[in-house]
Specification:
Number of domains of chain A: 1
Subunit structure (chain A): Heterodimer of an alpha and a beta subunit.
Number of helices of chain B: 3
Shape of chain B: elongated
Helix content of chain B: 55-70%
Protein name (chain A): Probable electron transfer flavoprotein subunit beta
GO cellular component, one term (chain A): mitochondrial matrix
CATH topology of chain A: Rossmann fold
Radius of gyration of chain B: 18 Å
CATH superfamily of chain A: HUPs
Strand content of chain A: 25-35%
Oligomer: heterodimer
Structural class of chain A: alpha/beta
Shape of chain A: globular
Order of helices and strands of chain B: HHH
Helix content of chain A: 25-40%
Number of helices of chain A: 6
Family (chain A): Belongs to the ETF beta-subunit/FixA family.
Keywords (chain A): Electron transport, Mitochondrion, Transport
Distance between the termini of chain A: 69 Å
Chain lengths: ~270, ~90
């Protein structure tokens, strides 16, 4: 059996143009979704993913051949790609969907990414993306992609160490109750987290000179049809409503009143 | 504005700060203050003073970036609180 040739690593970072974190979400009048006529920006979890990819290259230097970012979205998503390029990615792919088309579902995204990965002549070794998008909070794309590709996966990563010679990555994950360390064979899918225990990294600011330089970086435009993927939604959203308004708390004058109110609410304090 | 180099530096700084100011609290009038502060220093000739002014501009840029970072961190922390009883 011929040993695999020493090959430089290619990193793919899928990103999403999502509703900006600071926007106050409102349900639309038809109750079919949220008001999308608001400020959008790169999903914060994806920012962490882009930053991690750039830091992996800073650590491994020449062992990383390229960092490619990809997004599936309307024409305006090109701005998000530009920001990622300004942060340090080398090239981008924009799978364009029309403005009127519904946002693709995680399975559709995963299938598109699979088609894109298979199209890459030089292969992909690491796919690193945010664990979920802040507008839909699905948290499925990374895992679905790993399933479709049959690749190893490490989700909710809080620390990533890549060993290009041995073709493995040691990844620390955030789990309930602490941290878990995995050793994954490349190629691997990594999803980035934002948890309290350990922030993976602080994404860098894309300065104006870098944004200008990013304009010269190549952006390939594709459609889902060209990739042979059908991204029609399979789920139908029936209704979207706001959570019930918080009912204010009431003040009580003394302990007796407190006990009376608790009894009213059904708390007897007696063992069942 | 003494030399061509410092002129370019001042312009680059102004553009960068202007872009940063877009996300600032609108009632603070970041752009207005930015313009007035730059205009106040438009006739500086002493190299030291120019350097000091440019450094102050850089300082404001870093402060603003730090504020934005903090605001984002706080927002996200509130949006995704750690519940020890949660499933994820």
């Amino acid at each position: 059996m011929r040993p695999s040739a020493v090959r430089l690593l290619n990193i793919l970072v899928p990103i999403k143009r999502a509703v900006d974190y600071a926007v106050k979400i409102r349900v639309n009048p038809e109750q079919t979704g949220i008001d999308l006529n608001v400020k959008h920006s790169m999903n914060p979890f994806d920012e962490i993913a882009v930053e991690e990819a750039v830091r992996i290259r800073e650590r491994l230097k020449d062992a990383v051949k390229s960092i490619k970012v990809v997004t599936i979205g309307p024409p305006k998503s090109a701005e998000t790609l530009r920001t990622a390029l300004a942060m340090g990615a080398d090239s981008a792919v924009h799978v364009e969907i029309p403005d009127s088309a519904p946002s693709p579902e995680p399975l559709g995204v995963a299938k598109t990414l699979k088609a894109l990965i298979e199209r890459q002549k030089e292969g992909v070794d690491i796919v690193i993306l945010g664990k979920q998008a802040i507008d839909d909070d699905a948290g499925q794309t990374g895992q679905m992609l790993a399933g479709l590709m049959g690749w190893s996966q490490a989700t909710f990563a809080s620390k990533v160490e890549v060993n290009p010679e041995q073709k493995v990555a040691n990844i620390t994950r955030e789990i309930d109750g602490g941290l878990e360390e995995l050793r994954c064979k490349l190629p691997v899918i990594i999803t980035t987290d934002l948890r309290q225990v350990q922030l993976l990294n602080e994404p860098r600011y894309a300065s104006l000179p870098n944004i200008m330089k990013a304009k010269k970086k190549p952006v390939e435009k594709l459609t889902a049809a060209e990739l042979g993927v059908d991204i029609t939604p399979r789920l139908e959203t029936i209704k979207v409503t706001e959570p019930p308004k918080r009912v204010g708390g009431g003040k009580v004058a003394n302990v007796d009143e407190l006990l009376a109110k608790l009894k009213e609410a059904g708390f007897t304090g007696k063992r069942a | 504005m003494a030399s061509k180099v410092t002129r370019l530096r001042a312009l680059a700084l102004y553009k960068e700060l202007h872009r940063l100011g877009r996300d600032y609290e609108p009632s603070y009038d970041f752009h207005g203050k930015l313009r007035r502060l730059f205009e106040k220093n438009r006739n500086l000739t002493d190299d030291e003073e120019i350097e000091k002014a440019l450094r102050f501009g850089e300082y404001i840029k870093n402060e603003t970036l730090a504020l934005y970072s903090l605001r984002k961190y706080r927002h996200l922390k509130r949006m995704y609180p750690s519940n020890s009883t949660s499933d994820t």
